[in-house]
Design goal:
- The complex is a heterodimer of chains A (310) and B (290).
- Chain A is built from 15 helices and 2 strands.
- The two termini of chain A are 23 Å apart.
- Chain B has a domain of 198 residues.
- Chain B is built from 11 helices and 2 strands; from the N terminus they run ααααββααααααα.
- A two-stranded antiparallel ribbon of chain B has the order 1-2.
- In chain B, strand 1 and strand 2 form a beta hairpin.
- The longest helix of chain B has 31 residues.
- The chains are: A mainly alpha (310), B mainly alpha (290).
C-alpha cells in the first residue's frame, strides 16, 4: 500500500468514526470504543520503542499518567482547552521519553525494563505527594457542556479516532523509512549496527521521545473521560501489561500488529467487563499474553505470514 | 518533631527491616544474579507464600513462619516447573532476554489477579503470640513482629551462602553462572542445576512471604512495591553476591525507615526505586559486583 493509499484509508476511518458518532446508539458504545482506540494509540506508541527498537518499556503508566496530570495541571492553572492539553501532555511525556532515551546509553535489555518500571513508581509517589493536582485524594473535573458535539462521549470518541489514525500513520511512515530500518538493525544487534554507521543513539532518542509523546497524547484526554482521576487509576499496571500484551499478540515488527492486538484484546476486555467481571478480564489478558509469548512469539501477523509462505 | 530517640528507633527498625528484605531478595540474587533468569514475578511468589501463611493461619491457627517452612517443598516444585517451561520456551531457543521478561511479567500479573479474584482486595493478616509484643532497650523499642522475620532472614542468608560455598550442588550453581561447558565436563547437567537453583529461589520467596505477612497485612497488589525493592537490593548488592545482598538490604531498610520517619510513609517507596535508578545509572555492577 502506497503512502497516499494509507492516507486515504486513514481519512476514511476518521469519516467512519464521525458517522458512528452521528448514530443514536447506546452511549456506552462510545465509552467502550474510546477505551479500545486509546489502546490502539498506546500499543502503537509502545511498539515504536518496544517492537521496532527492541527496548521493552514497563513504564507505560508513567507516560500515560504524565499526559493525564499535565492536563490536570493546565486545567487547574489556566483552564486550557482540550487541543492544548493534548499537545502539552504529549510534549511533557516526550521529554520524559528523551530522558529514558539517554538511560539506554548505560542500560540495555533487562536493566532498561526494570528502570522504566522504577520510573513509574517514583513518578507515582511524586504525584501522590503533590496536592495541587489532587494528591492521593484524586482530582475531580467538572466538565462544561460538550462543545460542537451532542455529548462528551461522542466528542471523546471522535477525538480518539483521529488520534489513533494519526498515531498509526506516523508509526507506519517511520517503519518504512530509513529510521525504521535503522531501528530494526539496532534491535537485532546494536554493536553491529553502530559499526555499520547506523546512528544508534540518535535513533534510540528519536524512538523513546516519539513513543513517549504518543503515550502522553493517549493520556491527555483521560481526565475528561473519567472526570475523576486518582494516582492509582492513572498509574494503573493494566496499562503496562496491555501496552506489552497487545503488540505481542498482534506481532511487534509491523504497524499492523499492535492495531490488531489492541482491537482484539481491547474489545475482548470490554465485552468481558460487561458480561463477566472486570477482574476476570484482567486474568484473561495475563493468560493470553503468556500463552502467546510461549506458543506464538511472533504474534498473529507472524502466524499469518508463516501460513502464507507455506 | 525530631528527637534522637526517634532517630535511634528509626535506625533500629530499619536494620530489622533490612534483615527481612534480605530474605525477600535472596531468591532474586540466586535466579537473576547467578542464573541470569530475570524472574520479575518473584514478588508475586512472595505474596503467594504470604497468602499460604494466611490461609493456614486463619483456618488451622498454624504459625505463619512454620507454615512458610512447611510449604517450601511445594514452592520448590512450583519453581522447578516454572523454570522447565521457561527453559523449553525461551532459553533453549536462545530468545530468553526480552520474551522471557514478558513471560514473567505476565506470570506476575496472573498470580496477582488470581489472588484478588479468590481473596478479594481486603488486607489480610495473621495472628501469632509474638505479634504485637516488643522489648524496650533504653528507649529503643524492638518489635517482635520485626525481630522474628529479621532473624529468620539472617538464617536464610547464612543457609544460602553455606549451600553455595560448601555443597556440591551449591558450587555447581556458582559454576553454571560462570561456564556451562566446563560444568558439563565435570559431569553435571546445567539445566538440572538451574532447575534446582530456581526451585530454591521460589521456595525462598514463599518463606519470605510468610515473614512479610507477619510484619504487616498484605493485599494481592503488594507485590508491586517489592519489584523495585528486590531489584534495587540485588543490583546494589552486586549481582549474585549473597553477602552484598544482605548489606544492600540493610542499607535500603535503614534508608526507607528514616525517610518514613522524617518525611512520612508515603515517600518511603520512592527510596527503593530512587536507589535502583541511581545504582543502575551510576554503578550497574553494584557495591560488591563481580
Amino acid at each position: 500500500m502506497k503512502t497516499r493509499g494509507a492516507l486515504v484509508v486513514g481519512v476514511a476511518v476518521i469519516g467512519l468514526g464521525v458517522l458512528l458518532g452521528g448514530l443514536r446508539v447506546n452511549p456506552y458504545v462510545y465509552f467502550a470504543g474510546y477505551v479500545v482506540l486509546q489502546y490502539v494509540v498506546i500499543a502503537t506508541a509502545w511498539n515504536v520503542l518496544g517492537g521496532y527498537a527492541g527496548y521493552v518499556n514497563f513504564g507505560t503508566p508513567a507516560f500515560f499518567a504524565l499526559g493525564a496530570y499535565t492536563s490536570i495541571f493546565l486545567i487547574e492553572a489556566f483552564k486550557a482547552p482540550l487541543p492544548v492539553l493534548i499537545v502539552c501532555g504529549g510534549l511533557v511525556a516526550a521529554l520524559l521519553g528523551l530522558g529514558i532515551g539517554y538511560l539506554t546509553l548505560r542500560l540495555k535489555g533487562v536493566f532498561f525494563s526494570i528502570a522504566t518500571f522504577a520510573l513509574s513508581v517514583v513518578l507515582q509517589t511524586l504525584i501522590i505527594n503533590w496536592e495541587y493536582v489532587g494528591g492521593a485524594k484524586g482530582y475531580t473535573l467538572i466538565r462544561p457542556p460538550a462543545p460542537f458535539f451532542r455529548s462528551w462521549g461522542v466528542l471523546l470518541f471522535t477525538l480518539m479516532v483521529v488520534l489513533a489514525v494519526v498515531t498509526v500513520l506516523v508509526a507506519r511512515t517511520i517503519e518504512r523509512s530509513w529510521i525504521g530500518r535503522g531501528l530494526a538493525a539496532l534491535r537485532d544487534n546494536e554493536e553491529a549496527a553502530e559499526c555499520m554507521g547506523v546512528p544508534t543513539l540518535r535513533l534510540k532518542l528519536f524512538a523513546t521521545t516519539l513513543s513517549g509523546f504518543f503515550l502522553g497524547v493517549a493520556g491527555a484526554p483521560f481526565p475528561y473521560y473519567v472526570t475523576y482521576v486518582e494516582p492509582s487509576s492513572a498509574f494503573d499496571l493494566n496499562y503496562a501489561v496491555n501496552a506489552l500484551a497487545m503488540p505481542m499478540i498482534g506481532g511487534t515488527t509491523t504497524w499492523l500488529g499492535p492495531v490488531i492486538g489492541a482491537v482484539l484484546l481491547g474489545t475482548a476486555q470490554q465485552v468481558a467487563t460487561v458480561t463477566i467481571s472486570s477482574e476476570l478480564n484482567l486474568l484473561i489478558v495475563g493468560v493470553v499474553l503468556v500463552l502467546f509469548v510461549v506458543l506464538a512469539p511472533e504474534g498473529i501477523t507472524g502466524l499469518v505470514r508463516r501460513l502464507r509462505r507455506r | 518533631m525530631f528527637t534522637w530517640d526517634l532517630l535511634a528507633n528509626a535506625v533500629v527498625a530499619g536494620i530489622l527491616l533490612g534483615g527481612f528484605y534480605a530474605a525477600v531478595s535472596l531468591g532474586v540474587s540466586l535466579t537473576f544474579g547467578l542464573l541470569d533468569v530475570v524472574n520479575i514475578a518473584h514478588p508475586a511468589f512472595v505474596i503467594l507464600g504470604a497468602y499460604a501463611a494466611y490461609v493456614m493461619n486463619s483456618s488451622f491457627g498454624l504459625d505463619p513462619i512454620l507454615t512458610g517452612v512447611l510449604f517450601t517443598p511445594l514452592f520448590y516444585a512450583l519453581g522447578a516447573g516454572v523454570y522447565r517451561i521457561y527453559y523449553s520456551s525461551f532459553e533453549r531457543r536462545g530468545e530468553e532476554s526480552l520474551r522471557g521478561l514478558v513471560f514473567f511479567f505476565g506470570l506476575l500479573f496472573i498470580i496477582e489477579v488470581a489472588l484478588s479474584l479468590k481473596y478479594g482486595v481486603d488486607y489480610r493478616l495473621v495472628e501469632a503470640a509474638y505479634i504485637g509484643k516488643s522489648i524496650d532497650l533504653g528507649g529503643v523499642g524492638i518489635a517482635f513482629r520485626l525481630l522474628v522475620p529479621c532473624v529468620v532472614g539472617l538464617l536464610m542468608t547464612l543457609a544460602l551462602s553455606l549451600f553455595l560455598s560448601r555443597t556440591f550442588y551449591g558450587r555447581a550453581v556458582m559454576g553454571v553462572s560462570q561456564d556451562q561447558v566446563a560444568l558439563r565436563l565435570m559431569g553435571a547437567n546445567p539445566v538440572r542445576i538451574k532447575t534446582i537453583a530456581f526451585g530454591i529461589g521460589i521456595a525462598a520467596a514463599s518463606l519470605s512471604g510468610a515473614l512479610l505477612i507477619t510484619i504487616s497485612p498484605v493485599v494481592p497488589s503488594t507485590d508491586r512495591d517489592y519489584i523495585g525493592r528486590v531489584f534495587a537490593i540485588t543490583v546494589l548488592g552486586g549481582l549474585g553476591s549473597v553477602g552484598g545482598t544482605l548489606v544492600a538490604s540493610i542499607i535500603l531498610g535503614v534508608a526507607e525507615s528514616l525517610m518514613a520517619t522524617l518525611f512520612g510513609p508515603s515517600w518511603s517507596l520512592a527510596v527503593s526505586f530512587g536507589i535502583l535508578l541511581l545504582a543502575l545509572a551510576v554503578r550497574p555492577a553494584g557495591l560488591f559486583g563481580r
